[in-house]
């Protein structure tokens, strides 16, 4: 995970926010468009100011660990950075069909083949 300083442009400038797609107690998730790749991603912004000191200290190592995960059933990591010292930004791949919980909810109790995943 990279830390941005005040002299360089923010990595946020590489993305255009399309819409907010989620919100929780730690922060919010946004559907974004990478301007040069012309590809959609999910950007999660986690506010550090509201987090306990222990989480702040472990945030960098946690993001490094997430970056190393490669598994077909885990959303693929793209990038992460500390934005202006106040938010951790995590970019992951976006899947048009939603996540597994969305698929289960839409199925309304009907079974569907495992290959769908």
TrEMBL record:
<keyword id="KW-0067">ATP-binding</keyword>
<dbReference type="Pfam" id="PF00069">
    <property type="entry name" value="Pkinase"/>
</dbReference>
<dbReference type="InterPro" id="IPR011009">
    <property type="entry name" value="Kinase-like_dom_sf"/>
</dbReference>
<keyword id="KW-0418">Kinase</keyword>
<keyword id="KW-0808">Transferase</keyword>
<keyword id="KW-0547">Nucleotide-binding</keyword>
<dbReference type="InterPro" id="IPR050660">
    <property type="entry name" value="NEK_Ser/Thr_kinase"/>
</dbReference>
<dbReference type="InterPro" id="IPR000719">
    <property type="entry name" value="Prot_kinase_dom"/>
</dbReference>
<protein>
    <recommendedName>
        <fullName>Protein kinase domain-containing protein</fullName>
    </recommendedName>
</protein>
<feature type="domain" description="Protein kinase">
    <location>
        <begin position="15"/>
        <end position="117"/>
    </location>
</feature>
């Amino acid at each position: 995970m990279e830390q941005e300083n005040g002299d360089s442009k923010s990595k946020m400038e590489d993305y255009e926010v399309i819409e907010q797609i989620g919100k929780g107690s730690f922060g919010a998730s946004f559907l974004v468009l990478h301007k040069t790749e012309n590809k959609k991603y999910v950007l999660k912004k986690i506010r550090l100011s509201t987090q306990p000191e222990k989480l702040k200290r472990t945030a960098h190592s946690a993001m490094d660990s997430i970056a190393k995960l490669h598994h077909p059933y885990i959303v693929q990591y793209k990038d992460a950075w500390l934005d202006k010292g106040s938010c951790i930004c995590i970019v992951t791949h976006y899947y048009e069909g939603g996540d597994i919980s969305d698929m289960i909810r839409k199925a309304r109790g009907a079974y569907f083949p495992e290959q769908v995943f």
